[in-house]
Specification:
The structure is a single chain. The protein is an alpha/beta fold and 491 residues long. It has helices at residues 34-48, 81-98, 111-115, 117-127, 154-179, 187-201, 210-215, 219-225, 279-294, 339-352, 366-372, 384-395, 430-439, 475-483, 485-489; strands at 2-6, 17-22, 56-58, 67-72, 103-108, 146-151, 204-208, 233-239, 248-259, 299-309, 321-323, 329-331, 357-362, 377-381, 401-403, 421-422, 447-452, 458-459, 469-470. The chain has an eight-stranded mixed sheet, with helices on both faces. Strands 1-6-5-2-4-3 form a six-stranded mixed sheet, with helices on both faces. A three-stranded mixed sheet has the order 11-12-16, covered by helices on one side. Helix 8 (219-225) runs antiparallel to helix 10 (339-352) and helix 10 packs parallel to helix 13 (430-439). It starts with a strand and ends with a helix. The chain binds ligand BES and zinc ion (ZN) (2 copies). One zinc ion binds at residues 256, 259, 277, 338-339.
Length: 491
């Protein structure tokens, strides 16, 4: 995939396909060709009248372009304009690649168009991703593709291309980690990933191995990792801005590299998807990849808590009681509710390193999927400003969050008769009781948000510009939260 910018007139545009995106409120382009203008006016009314249910495709007269593709926002009424642009951009570049028309131009030559170059590039880069590593013949569909961005300012377009490339390469990196087998992405592999990021973006990295975790009484990681051949780790990756920052934003990511359920073992059906139970860890690493390059004004640390949850003679057992470093004891009623056990260690550590704001990210509950379906990440927390900031940051990237309740009333469900709390809630409100459990480990005056990405980390079928498989959920949201901190937290 290559990107080119073009500032000239339609006559001299060198492309096989020209993509035109129509919308009722936005004018992304101006074409100085009468025949084409007429055709578009006709298309506009046909789309709006619901007479066209897919893109309009035709060969233009007297232009050196093979195919014109016209999309209209009315085709995708479920999503906002930015998401539609990305979706159409992904479809346009795919059409070109699949039909042997590698040069695909996107008409963005109005003031409005120039503002949206980054969205088109995001759609193309996220839309052309697929996990090909294990095929005998990897598909190289987009190898020869060239996206030509036809704008008023090549320079301003290039800035947006550069930024979108940083965002999308990091997101696609997250997708690679989540798609990859659990035999390859072990806790140690996540540690190496963090170390690589530290080296490439000059971040501080600190790794706690099993011995150190024992010293530090990180009992959740030790217990969850006890049954595995692959020992657990806690890794912190820190970004420090040039000017001192009062804000210390800390991300905590769940990195269960495979969740069998442990002794409370899961059924075989779809268990393979539990190689993605480290998607929260991958997301916080992806966010640091972006943050290390876009260099926000605030201090940011990512804590990865990583272990493999598997049954064994040495594995933690239902009925075990863990005494955490913050003094709280937890009864393990079900070893499959392991995410909260390791996140508790991460949250305690976040407090210890002076977090002012904590955002944890985890594929935590099936209950979140039942509540929300696959289009929304579950969002809970103790601070309205932070919750709104996460929602706003996500909105900048088409990542949708939906607030679920965190009622103190439901603490009753995680009461234990033998310990301070139980790791299993009752039969209802599973996403909320999991979050209430986590809250027990958040320092009281620290702003905290919890992102349950179980609904969104994986696409069983293509959706918007995403193909099947890992979506890279939350990485761009977290990065945006940091680099647009002032805007996102305003009011
Ligand atoms: N990793 C799972 C949650 C999950 C399920 C993520 C499906 C993505 C897709 C988590 O560790 C788990 O097993 N949760 C249990 C909790 C229960 C035992 C309280 C669940 O959701 O069933
Ligand atoms: Zn589990
Ligand atoms: Zn899990």
């Amino acid at each position: 995939m290559k990107f080119e910018t073009y500032e000239g007139s339609l006559r001299d545009l060198h492309a096989d396909v020209l993509v035109l995106i129509l919308d009722a409120q936005n004018e992304l382009f101006e074409v100085d060709d009468e025949a084409l203008q007429e055709r578009l006016a006709g298309a506009r009314s046909q789309f709006s009248a619901g007479k066209l249910s897919r893109e309009l495709s035709f060969a233009p007269k007297d232009l050196p372009i093979d195919t014109v593709l016209v999309y209209h926002s009315d085709l995708e009424k479920n999503y906002g304009f930015w998401e539609n642009i990305k979706t159409f951009a992904a479809r346009g570049i795919r059409f070109g690649a699949e039909t042997g028309r590698p040069r695909v131009a996107f008409a963005l030559n109005s003031a409005d168009g120039l503002e949206h170059v980054g969205k088109v590039v995001e759609g193309i880069l996220l839309g052309s991703y697929s996990f090909e590593k294990y095929r005998q013949k990897p598909r190289k569909l987009f190898e020869d593709s060239v996206a030509v961005l036809w704008t008023q300012s090549a320079e301003k377009a290039q800035e947006q291309i550069d930024q979108a490339e940083i965002l999308c390469h990091a997101t696609n990196g997250v997708r690679d980690l989540v798609n990859e087998s659990a035999s390859v992405i072990t806790p140690a592999a996540l540690v190496r990933k963090a170390q690589d990021l530290a080296a490439s973006h000059s971040l501080q990295v600190e790794v706690w191995d099993q011995a150190r975790l024992t010293q530090e009484r990180m009992v959740g990681l030790l217990a969850v990792g006890a049954g595995s051949e692959h020992p657990p780790f806690m890794v912190s990756l820190s970004y420090q801005p040039e000017a001192p920052s009062d804000v210390h934003l800390v991300f905590v990511g769940k990195g269960v590299t495979f969740d069998t359920g442990g002794i409370s073992i899961k059924p075989a059906e779809k268990m393979h998807l539990m190689r993605g139970d480290m998607a929260g860890a991958a997301a916080v690493l992806g966010a640091m990849d972006i943050i290390g390059q876009l260099k926000p004004k605030i201090r940011v640390t990512a804590i990865v808590v990583t272990a493999e949850n598997t049954p064994d003679g040495k594995a933690m057992r239902p009925g075990d009681i863990l005494s955490y470093r913050n003094g709280k004891s937890v009864h393990v009623e079900n070893t499959d509710a392991e995410g909260r056990l390791i996140l508790a260690d991460g949250l305690i550590h976040a407090g210890d390193i002076g977090a002012t704001h904590i955002v944890d990210v985890a594929t935590l509950t099936g209950a979140a999927i039942r509540a929300l379906g696959y289009s929304f990440t579950g969002l809970m927390g103790n601070n309205r400003t932070l919750i709104n900031a996460v929602t706003r940051a996500g909105g900048n990237h088409g990542e949708a969050y939906w607030k679920l309740p965190l009622p103190a009333e439901y603490k009753e469900y995680i009461k234990s008769s033998v310990a301070d709390i139980n790791n299993l809630g009752g039969p209802v409100a599973g996403a909320s009781t999991a979050a209430l459990f986590l809250q027990e480990f958040v320092p009281e005056k620290t702003a905290w948000a919890h992102l349950d990405i179980a609904p969104t980390f994986w696409k069983e079928k293509p959706w918007k510009y995403y193909g099947e498989g890992a979506s890279g959920a939350a990485a761009r949201t977290l990065a945006d939260l940091a680099y647009n901190w002032a805007e996102n937290t305003a009011r």
